Amino acid sequence: MIEKEAFHDHNPLAYMRLYELNPDGFLVVEKDGIVIGFVVGILISKNTGRVLSIAVANEYRRSGVATQLMDEVLKLFTESGVKSIRLEVRRSNIGAQQFYQRLGFMVEGVVPQYYSNGEDAIVMVKKLGKRS
Ligand SMILES: CC(C)(COP(=O)(O)OP(=O)(O)OC[C@H]1O[C@@H](n2cnc3c(N)ncnc32)[C@H](O)[C@@H]1OP(=O)(O)O)[C@@H](O)C(=O)NCCC(=O)NCCS
Asked: How far is 66 from 56, CA to CA, in rounded Å?
């Protein structure tokens, strides 16, 4: 439901498959037993992690839920020896870009027409080091 509310491309089967393949990287925050946010992180190589998706239910945004999710996924990646984390975000999604920038992600490039509606993706990367 959160994914449906947050994204244009709603694909619950893809999320089930991701969960089956990668249960450790699929994290949620619950409030009173209800899921209010999730993140999906996967290892794409020994040194590189990728955040595939993150979303928080509308009414719980701007209260630190996504920061909590990213902190946990960054912790998991660090424990796995990951050196950098990458993600794609829609060019129009300025709020999410600001969120990632605040967490130390920097713009690495653009993938033209990455999304099914033809929108470009901004690729953002965070290096994990001693001070991360
Ligand atoms: C992007 C998203 C996950 C952020 O979740 P959140 O729980 O609201 O984020 P947080 O409360 O942890 O935000 C931490 C900080 O990030 C920045 N930030 C978060 N959302 C922002 C927004 N919409 N606009 C500008 N800055 C934002 C702010 O600096 C915020 O701190 P503040 O609230 O004290 O100003 C949420 O807006 C969401 O689910 N959006 C729809 C799905 C989406 O776009 N996902 C990313 C796809 S790549």
From this structure: 7
CATH top-level class of 2-127: alpha beta
Q: What distance, in Å, lies between the first and last C-alpha atoms of the chain?
A: 32
Q: What pTM value is reported for the model?
A: 0.95
Predicted pLDDT of residue 37: 97
pLDDT of 130 > 60? The answer is no
Residue spans per domain, the chain: 2-127
Distance 57 CA to ligand 1 centre (A): 11
pLDDT at 76 over 90: yes
The gap from C-alpha 54 to its chain's centroid, in whole angstroms, comes to 4
User: Within 6 Å (CB) of ligand 1, which residues are found?
Assistant: 6, 54-56, 61-67, 89, 93, 95-96, 98-99, 102
Ligand 1 atom with the smallest distance to the CA of 98 is 26
What is the residue with the minimal CA distance to atom 28 of ligand 1? 99
